[in-house]
Amino acid sequence: MSVSGYIDAAFRSSYKNEVYIFMKNEYVLLDYAPGSTNDKILNGPLRIHEGFPSLIGTPFAECGIDCAFDTDDNEAFIFSTKLCALIDYAPRTKNAKILSGPKKIKHIFPFLENTVFASGIDAAFKSSFSKEAYLFKGDTYALINYDSKKLIHVQKITDGFHGLRGTVFASGIDAAFASHQRGHEAYFFKGDLYALVDFAPHTTDDFLIGGKVKLILPNWPSLRRILPR
Predict the structure, then answer these.
(1) Using one digit for the tens of pLDDT, what is the confidence trace for 142-170?
(2) Is the pTM of this model over 0.70?
(3) Which residue stretches, if any, does this entry annotate as coiled coil (predicted)?
(4) 139-173 burial, b if ≥16 CB within 10 A, otherwise e?
(5) pLDDT of residue 3
(6) 84-90-96-97 Cα dihedral, nearest 10 degrees
(7) Domains along the chain?
(8) Which of 44, 160, 203, 229 is at 20 to 30 A from 5, Cα to Cα?
(9) Is 216 helix (H, G, I), strand (E, B) or coil?
């Protein structure tokens, strides 16, 4: 069973080694200091509406962000239950703006209608392949092209990510984001656990970097004072 009160969503900033991490209706901007335990909070924790005023009056500010992934430039898709929006998150400012939405997921990504992802998405991250992203819901994931609005495939996590077999991530992922470091690395989170994964796109050669799943605390020291919420 997943431990509540940890990380609900995350997306990588266009600033190197910076990531937005969401916890219910709050967030922090984090320098995640890859390869070390020198991570530090750059801003927050703040209520989402404090850092993203353009989201006031939307479910993203009131109920929280369930899932997110960065795309190109300063843009990201954010999700809350069945709703999705594309935002310009205007890093290091409060000038974020909604570019599209909020709309139902199936209206922004029509190819997800009649799939488990239409009712909500647990986690996502941008692939190292251009315009592609991985979406996760329960024990299932989808690989999509978010630009051409194409569904590449839907599979069980254990069929597409052999390195996750026998780990807590086989049954689902709470949040994820792609690293700024070497091209095929991503951080996965579930409850109080995380893993750094070489996701080996378009293959099943993925593996856990370091060989194991670890506790978020104490491996992310800056999060000690804010997690669990």
Answers:
(1) 999 999 999 999 999 999 999 999 999 99
(2) yes
(3) none
(4) bbbbbbbbeeeebbebeebbebbebbeebbbeebb
(5) 61
(6) -60
(7) 9-223 (2.110.10.10)
(8) 160
(9) helix
